[in-house]
Amino acid sequence: MLILDAHQDIAYNALCFGRDYRQSVGATRAREGADATPERNGIATSGLPDGLLGRVGIVFATLFVAPANKEPSPWDRLEYKTPREAYDLALKQWDVYQRLADETDTIRLIRTTRDLDAVLATWADGVTKHQQGFVLLMENADPILEPQQFEEWYERGVRLVGPAWQATRYCGGTGQPGGLTALGRELLEVMGSFNAILDLSHMAEEAYLEAVDRYPGVLIASHSNPRKFCTTDRHLSDEMIRLLAERDGVMGVVLYNRFLSNEWRRGDRKSDVPFATLLDVIDYYCQITGSAAHVGIGTDFDGGFGAESTPEGIDTVTDLIKIGDGLRARGYSDADIDAVLSGNMLRKLRQALPA
In terms of pTM, does the model score above 0.85? Predict the structure, then answer.
């Protein structure tokens, strides 16, 4: 089994907290034991050695920026007031990934199907030295200075774009309703000309529905759960789920307890969300869409929460492999398990990447 994690905030952690992704989770936790980082961003869950151990072969690695807010936040170093500031902050994150790939022979940036196949080949039977591939995902499109400038980001390796986080110049977002703006519609046209993947996570429902209808290219929701489990506009209604499945889209399950349970709150016990709940969310996606072809994993590690806020049995990224065991115990076939763990997102990736 191979795992594709459709959402990790690796550069965010490097720039905001000095976390070195090349270090193990244990090393990061030991270093942070006496500082305030775990309180601000949670106990670390992700690192390259742990990912390789857990067969996490591909990660959608984010370029994340946030609109300036008067309230303190874990991501305050990545807050912007102007599109140019957003651009500069995203560029700093892009540089983090370039350096990681340049300095680490077990990390490869995936821009093409050739890159993808090269990474997957390192996971073939009998190969002992594995690589982890990064596909760059822009979360919040405000670093795109104007729609035609997306070409620059595409040349830099960005293959997925989520237009929203909160509302942006391009569309409504979490907690800030609204549809696509004129700029947003133009951005989708430009992205479509490059066959880029549109990430619907965080888009306000009005914008989401219009985008599903309008965008001709590949669609995913990299890290979104059903509203049945988390009843907020951050997540997907049954209608939104069905419409995305009709477009052959894939939804990545988020491993944050607050997004897995309407009752759980920060400070509650980790064990209040049992591992079975994570499987229930996957089951629900399968029931609504009629198959296991439209659900994957988008952990959102370590995006403002940590191991204290993940389901019982999930401590680090190494534990993602347990999802396969849990699904097998529920009667899922090996083919369906492979689809959930990586195959569905890989299908979307292959449809979008250039040769």
Answer: yes
